[in-house]
Amino acid sequence: MNNSPFKWVVLSVGGVIAVAHIGVLGHLLDMNKKYADRPQYPSINLPTGEYSSYDVDVNSDGYSIKYKANDPRVLTSERSLDLDKEKKGLFGGGTEKRTEWRRDEYTINGTRNIGGGADEEGKLSAKDVECIKAEGGAQAQGAMVGTSIAASAAPMLTGIPYIGWLAVGWASLLGQRAGSSLGSEVSSILNDC
User: Fold this and answer.
1) Mean pLDDT, rounded, for 148-171
2) Chain center to CA of 57
């Protein structure tokens, strides 16, 4: 049994696998020596699109990434009209000189920027803060009122077979949402926001 063919097959397959492993390790060590002078950085899949930009700086100390998702953030459009022509009307004479210049800024979704919002330092004005507070409070009050009005319909809805308990929940959520949005709208009208 010492010279069985099974023993020789196992030894030969094991030897081939051992030599292959040694070869792979040697190849990996050789690759590390070949690319040792290059800085290594991880592969990062940045979300890129039409309005995004990034800059990767790689050196021996490490790497840094500067990424902008909406670049440019503001799009500009400039128009000008110069009109110098002599105007002859019914009674004669007269000149017209009209010069118009317009510069508009647009956000990424095409909305024209009309100013307002944050001041130069990036802080909100007192009026904006007051409007935000008033709208938040009105939303909470409206949600409570809407829920309580919808809850008054609960006895009628629980009589629905099989889904009465579910209909009460739906009515409460619907009342809460409707009251919240109505409170927000009323607050913005009353506070001139």
Assistant:
1) 87
2) 25
